[in-house]
Amino acid sequence: MMTRQEVRSRIEEIGILPGIRLTKEDDALYAAETVYHAGIKIAEVTMTVPGAISVIRRLTQSFPDMIVGAGTVLDKETAARCLDAGPVCHQYRSHS
Asked: Which of 43, 48, 61, 66 is the most buried (most CB within 10 A)?
């Protein structure tokens, strides 16, 4: 798993953080996968996407070198679910 500093360095190196905000889970997954295959191995999935937690989980399982973040997290319960969805989030939790 990556440390906070490693994640921060990758974000700075890539220079862009695509936000994934669509109205269907499959469309969001497709968009994030497309971003990844285009060479941008980072994306933020907003919690406004139906099934956002599932999208995050699927991305982190399919693309372990991709940094996947969660956006529009408005409560502790959602934050906890995001932390459980993927390995990068687990690393963040262990440092808080």
From this structure: 43
Half-sphere exposure of 21 (CA within 13 A, CB side): 9
Q: How far apart are CA 45 and CA 13, in angstroms?
A: 20
CB neighbour class for 33 (10 Å; exposed up to 12, middle 13-18, buried from 19): middle
Is residue 43 very low, low, confident or very high in pLDDT (cuts 50, 70, 90)?
very high
- Nearest by Cα to 4 from 72, 12, 43: 12
The first and second tokens of residue 57, run together, are 């989980």
Q: What pLDDT, on a 0 to 100 scale, did the predictor assign at position 88?
A: 53
pLDDT at 91: 35
